[in-house]
Amino acid sequence: MPTLNHLIALEATARLGSFRAAAEEMSLTQGAVAQQVRALEKEFGCLLFERLPRGLSANRQGREYITRLRLALGIIDEATRELLQQETPEEAGRLIVSTTSTFASRWLIPRLPEFSRANPDIAVMIDACDTARPLSGKGGVDMAIRWGAPPFAESHARFLLPASSIPVCAPALLSRRGVLSPDNLDVLPLISDSHKNWQRWFESCGRPGVKISGPVFSQTSHAIEAAEQGMGVALVPSLFVEAALQTGTLVHALKHPHRLDTEAGFYIITAQPIEPESACGRVIDWLLTQGRLVDPAGFIP
């Protein structure tokens, strides 16, 4: 059998009419392409091109051979494309979930070991990024978990969790201040994140126009960490501080916590509806079950 690279050089030369043009298409030197074509001619014992003043033209033998060669190369190309579209068994069980770094570290990852033990054939890979990724599957992002409110452009969304926020702080900070209420909470540094919800929280408590003073972080996870270090009071989604409240690294800043509810929440987003029995469908079903455990009432935005 002739060398495949030589055959590809032959077809490109015939189609483009010169060694130079074929070399540019194949990212080779002109001399390398010419050498490959001449090697074929030597192997076949006949010339395949007429050398013209302004290029090359396949002769009769060359035209007949190259016509059938193109059919063979076309079959190889089609078979390769079909193969690349097929998922390997490993790929079929691998899912990429895109979400924010805070949601990943504070809610999703702590729960993943349980899912992995129950579903050893599915490997969930987390793409933690605060910008939305295109949903594509087949090597791209299979699903996303994002904060917002429907409709989501060109996607299928299922509600997962509410995003009601509560004020929390380190226990040492609270012990030095005594009983706090919405009327005097602003005596402490108020930690803000990119959502900047403190004004809305005070308005919902009947105190519009309160001056917000304290550290500002772009990431909610950093605002939570700052609160754990005693830097002030953070207003963050309650689902992100469940574990911290249970272990005592954070406490409710108010004796009677006042929640800031919004119409937005966390949604599972896919490019299209998912078959329940697929790997993606099983992950979604597990996520929804976890969401109901956190919010038994079934919050509806």
TrEMBL record:
Pfam families: HTH_1 (PF00126), LysR_substrate (PF03466). Gene3D superfamilies: Periplasmic binding protein-like II, Winged helix-like DNA-binding domain superfamily/Winged helix DNA-binding domain. Belongs to the LysR transcriptional regulatory family. InterPro entries: LysR-type_TF_proteobact-type (IPR058163), LysR_HTH_N (IPR000847), LysR_subst-bd (IPR005119), WH-like_DNA-bd_sf (IPR036388), WH_DNA-bd_sf (IPR036390). One of its GO terms (molecular function) is DNA-binding transcription factor activity. Residues 2-59 form the HTH lysR-type domain. PANTHER family: HTH-TYPE TRANSCRIPTIONAL ACTIVATOR TTDR-RELATED, HTH-TYPE TRANSCRIPTIONAL REGULATOR. It comes from the Bacteria. This is HTH lysR-type domain-containing protein. Keywords: DNA-binding, Transcription, Transcription regulation.
